[in-house]
């Protein structure tokens, strides 16, 4: 029967089959069961904090022995404060409105049937992530809140922490009407398990990777299951001819420097030619003070000769660090053209006081988030009021931009009749 | 530069690049341009009806010479009535509400930014279809109405008709502000062109195949672009214990026999054990009169011994013809379990007068359309009031069920600020 399948394949398939069955059970569970389970998870995390921290110490030891650098080790660490934050996150998700079951657009059609759309869970979600063990809790509770079963596959550096968290989750869910198979951890560190998970189409409905570009590219390449992903965040700020000078400088500085290693950080600054002479020297001073290296086009360097020369590669670079590409553009159309050509359809902003320009920018820039007069660093599920975020998507189909609970659901048609039949 | 690329690859890439540029132009076009183009297409189809019918005659001749069977030839045929129907379809799409540009859920968040969601075109849509040349018009106008550019690839049997239709579309669009590259036909019959189109990710946003299962399976396998598809329509009707007898029989008969070769036809009938003795003989008589062969489970055959024996394969068979699988089930839970296990998540119906049963069925059956007391043959974009239909999707992500104009769009976030910056 299983010719050609490794033990890992068989194990992952069994996990996926149990997840599929559990996803049906979650949908069929009594109202309130998911909330009970979330509260149970919070309680179990609290009572098992000592075990979590002890398990995490093993990961930290191993990381130190393996010579992981300090930022990596810090991201791994779970102390009492980290456990408290996890618990707070779980309880906060519990308070969000239930995204499942809503029926909208219910209309009576000429045939007599009523047709509406019902929001339902996606089913089974595979989460593949690196490093931070808190993702184990965050992802599990978002999937559960939205009525999905999930299969979690964390990084090998945090395997002990992840196992301890998974044990706590299982304890918390027990007796609430939610089956423990609704949240499963792939507890082996064998990398083949990722490949096996990516082939469970028919049992797993969507894969959500969280991690570096290398991980995400591998997953997109190998997966036969749809992937909700974002690859690049090459975000732009365009300072239009009518921009308020102080606002433009503030937004540019914040979009770049509030945090560097985030996908919503600005990577290229575009400045309208009519404002470049006035604004670039001030911007250059501010960025220099913040320690940001500027790489400019020829026109920019005429105004600020200290800038390095930008090459063609700089226009599509995601630095994730204190480097910024700078380009002077002739007009709004050139700015939109640059963004649609070199950008990554993630988050782009115009600073302007011209209503027509703002409307054109919002209409024509083909990105998941298009902003007027606000820092690109706002592109985030919490800042957008989604209540939670499982990731940011640069896909066009399904979820686009920050993905909250709604992105973990889909809609089916519901039809109510009184015996109507179709006559063609 | 183009080492390893065939002429076909280069040609298709060039079409895709022009489509991408045209998709930007459609979004940037003045309000009303798309409507002008639709009216222009209707006008050109009317004035070129003679050329269309003449071109179609060449396809019909070739089909006859190649020995295509009569139903295939009939599906190919364009006469004056067919042209009139095409024109009517174009004008009807023109009257539908514009799905693009709507901004919803605009809220002011605690930071002061306003965040909303704007409905926008997907971008470039590749349509791959067989046989019926009217798809060339239908698909083109739905894509244009929703602000997309499209690349059309029809079957080789209808190449002359498709070229003539494409010429008429180009004439109709001319001078309206919509670039002619917004609707392009791949005019070669070389099959390699399909493969080349399926690799244009980055330029083509989604592929929609219309045709037989073989075509769709090939496309799903080869495409590196997301595919909106449906593979199977294994639809069920479940007659619950509380069903009205006459309604149950009517719905079962209509769901199967109104049309056989459609994806929303019933393929398996499930009957509650408590009603089987009463209803199966009557159903068997009615189906026999309609010429439908029944294949039953053991319990069914105890009641109607004339039924053939259903095998395990019958439960997942899509007959698309006058054959029906019949199974007696113990209760509602068993019916839901059967449907979720053997069905294709397309369209499934319960006939019941029990409110709790209908609610449970609607909640737990994991299909694109879930119906209560209505024929499965209603699963259709027009019957659902979508105004149009480009296909039916059994995907869970993005569009699910009948896909109308909304399924050809996506939503981006729009953010309006007054200079807000983020403080973490």
What does this structure look like?
The structure is a homodimer of 424-residue chains. The first copy, chain A, has helices at residues 7-28, 33-47, 49-65, 70-76, 80-95, 134-145, 159-173, 192-197, 213-222, 245-257, 273-289, 298-303, 332-342, 355-364; strands at 103-108, 114-121, 124-129, 149-153, 183-185, 206-210, 235-239, 266-272, 293-296, 308-309, 323-329, 347-351, 369-374, 391-393, 401-403, 409-420. The first copy, chain A, is globular. In chain A, the strands form four sheets. Chain A has a seven-stranded parallel sheet with strand order 10-9-11-8-7-12-13. In chain A, strands 5-4-3-6 form a four-stranded parallel sheet, sandwiched between helices. The first copy, chain A, contains 14 helices and 16 strands. The model of chain A has no long low-confidence stretch (mean pLDDT 95). Chain A is of the alpha/beta class and 424 residues long. In chain A, 42% of the residues lie in helices and 21% in strands. In chain A, strand 4, helix 7 (159-173) and strand 5 (183-185) form a beta-alpha-beta unit. The longest helix of chain A has 22 residues, at 7-28. The interface between A and B is large, with 72 and 72 residues.
